[in-house]
Specification:
The chain contains 3 helices and 2 strands. The chain is mostly helical. The protein has 2 domains: 34 residues, no CATH class; 29 residues, no CATH class.
Length: 65
């Protein structure tokens, strides 16, 4: 069976998130899920498995901007 994936942005309340779940939305983003944060802060909080130094990732991310 083929199934398409649905996503939603701007999910700002728990009520909206519950409604989207009932509709079968697969992915969502917004304040109800997590507040925005700087990329470097996120990278420091979520290290790649087996890595302690993110310098290569940081320069790659900055170069991509």
């Amino acid at each position: 069976m083929i199934r398409s994936l649905a996503r939603s942005t701007g999910v700002e309340t728990d009520a909206i998130l519950r409604g989207l779940r009932e509709l079968g939305i697969d992915f969502a983003q917004g304040y109800a899920i997590a507040r925005p944060e700087p990329f470097m802060g996120w990278l420091a909080a979520h290290p790649a498995p087996g890595r302690t130094d993110h310098e290569d990732l940081r320069s790659t991310a900055i170069a991509g901007l």
